[in-house]
Amino acid sequence: MYLIVGLGNPGKEYSKNRHNIGFMTVDEIARDNHFPAFKSKFQGAYSEGRIANQKVMLLKPQTYMNESGQSVGKVAKFYKIPPSNIIVMYDELDIPFKRVKIKQGGGSGGHNGIKSIDAHLGNKDYWRVRMGIDHPGDKNRVSGYVLSDFSKAEQAELDDYIYAVVKYCDLLIEGNKDDFTTRVSEYLK
Fold first, then answer.
1. Going from the N-terminus, what domains does the chain have, and what CATH number goes with each?
2. Catalytic residue among 19, 34, 120, 135
3. Which of 97, 119, 178, 184 shows the smallest number of beta carbons within 10 Å?
């Protein structure tokens, strides 16, 4: 089984925030792959279905960003999902908007959701799909920036951005991580 986690904050007031691009992407993966409605369990909203002929669970932790690892850790332990089969999608300040980078393991880059997952999994070798949201230019503005909605200009391109990640997520499940980033980049040119 594979676990695809989208990071974000629960609640309507956060739904269109930059910090919630992970939730937005997982919602679109669910729609595009005809997953059933999300259910509540493991301190998260989850749905199970198939992508690339593999069983996949989609998860949106409902603990708020800073405690995302509680939900991810519970699902991974219950279903015995190894870190190599966990893919976390989240916002990345240090990558330009509409750019995606993927890596396995590594540091948190200061992202509190990733710090929490690292702490609860006890293993950092899960996959990270880092979705660029740009940087506000000043570290003192970061908190307000990630908790604000995408700008009007960004909103006009957001659907395409998310669609590109969703369109090629089967490559992540098949292990073609390099092809994934290449295809997403080509689609968004």
1. 2-187 (3.40.50.1470)
2. 19
3. 178
pLDDT at 150 over 90: yes
Q: Is 111 a catalytic residue?
A: no
| Assigned token pair, 20 | 């919630």
Q: Rg of the chain's alpha carbons, rounded to an integer? A: 15
Cα gap 161→125, rounded to integer Å: 26
Residue-wise pLDDT for 63-102, tens only, equals 999 999 999 999 999 999 999 999 999 999 999 999 999 9
Inter-CA distances, 133 with 109, 121, 130, 163, Å = 14, 26, 9, 15
